[in-house]
């Protein structure tokens, strides 16, 4: 079984929440573990975003939080240059999407990762 963890910025968290429109200031992250072979969602965890209230350096804090959650994929709005560089350095794949429900974004990303 090949699983991966996906981190998505959200307001309240969960599969029915919308993808938040700002990476660094999203109140929470929904971290979803999926089986890439079957597309089955194995677990859903909502974590507080440490960058949401940061005065500066939110991008780096968020990238580290995503890595700490053991996510190898980020799905959400386009990250700023510092966050993008940090995510790339940490080996996190970046997929840009906004304005959709978390569960729909997950389905789309699974298709991309399988191809």
CATH class: Alpha Beta
Using the alpha-carbon principal axes, give the shape.
Answer: globular
What is the CATH fold-level name? Nucleotidyltransferase, domain 5
Q: Please compute the radius of gyration using only Cα atoms.
A: 13 Å
Report the total helices.
3
Number of domains: 1
Helix and strand pattern? EEEHEHEH
Poorly predicted runs are: none
Tally of strands: 5
The CATH homologous superfamily is called Dinitrogenase iron-molybdenum cofactor biosynthesis domain
Strand order in the largest sheet: 3-2-1-4-5
Mean pLDDT: 91
In helices, the fraction of residues equals 25-40%
Question: How would you characterize this protein structure?
Answer:
With 115 residues, this protein is of the alpha/beta class. It has a single domain, classed as Dinitrogenase iron-molybdenum cofactor biosynthesis domain (Nucleotidyltransferase, domain 5). It has three helices and five strands. The two termini are 17 Å apart. The relative contact order is 0.24.
Please supply descriptive tags for the structure shown above.
alpha/beta; Nucleotidyltransferase, domain 5; five-stranded mixed sheet; 5 strands; 28% strand
SSE arrangement:
Layout: E1 3-10, E2 28-35, E3 41-48, H1 58-68, E4 73-76, H2 81-89, E5 93-96, H3 102-114
Parallel strand pairs: 1-4, 4-5
Antiparallel strand pairs: 1-2, 2-3
Helix pairs in contact: 1-2
Give a quick rundown of the structure.
By secondary structure, this protein is α/β, with parallel strands linked by helices. Helices cover 29% and strands 28% of the residues.
